[in-house]
């Protein structure tokens, strides 16, 4: 059983930069039922342009007969702040002006996204999460929420993410924003503003999500005499158009800025010290040929989170492997959770 809902937070929401939204709405989706002990919560944090329907975009890991099964777990995924899939975003009406925010929307950080998750958890009466999991932007959210220590997180699973956004990642995001801002319609104050720029931005992003090998395997030409109309060129255009049909340039602009803000050491003693404060049983998974979030970034997380278990996997899809290699992820995560449960049983026996 799945359910889609919107939580209306009627109080002002203060962002990390001190600015406020007069109120906030959070779109979220749940699967299954919360048990009597309220200890079967699986909370999934989604990536850049995904939505709250985690059983759709993480099919193979979440859903009937998969590792995270609604028959056993109460699964939650909340649409992030700034995304236009129901949560407050730049396309929402600014109550001060009566018009959509567009580029007057306040900037926000990954830490703000984690704070929004906590608001929803409080609303739902959830005080303990059995598994908090996220990949890419979702992993950044999950790490910040775990460090905030505002809720009990038994198991934390971080996939293809990092402790802070690197110059490499920021450069990719800025290149995409340059493409968007080069489209004059981005400043038109219209819902479809910047769409040509967004198409170009997605083409840039795709190069960081996939690999040289993947393009050679799927986009190679079958003949040698072509001088134009190449498969790879058509593929880039198609992927850009595909995103434009379901997303908007303003949300993309703000969410990439939020990714750039990610640094768990900000306002704290250090990055390492912040990670050392994570109390959850932690599993970190990296992808060996991830071009955007190189595996050394996950190795860093595994090294500095106390007792963390680290695994790397191979995928022809590069960064996108965290969405595609669900069989491998199921095996690694399943074994980790079994070991975690066994450790918990042993600990209880010792206490008894």
TrEMBL record:
Substrate binds at residues 202, 320. GO terms for molecular function: homoserine O-acetyltransferase activity. Keywords: Acyltransferase, Amino-acid biosynthesis, Cytoplasm, Methionine biosynthesis, Transferase. The keyword Acyltransferase applies. Residues 45-323 form the AB hydrolase-1 domain. One of its GO terms (cellular component) is cytoplasm. It is an enzyme of class 2 (transferase). It catalyses: L-homoserine + acetyl-CoA = O-acetyl-L-homoserine + CoA. The keyword Transferase applies. Homodimer. HAMAP family: MetX_acyltransf. This is Homoserine O-acetyltransferase. The gene is metXA.
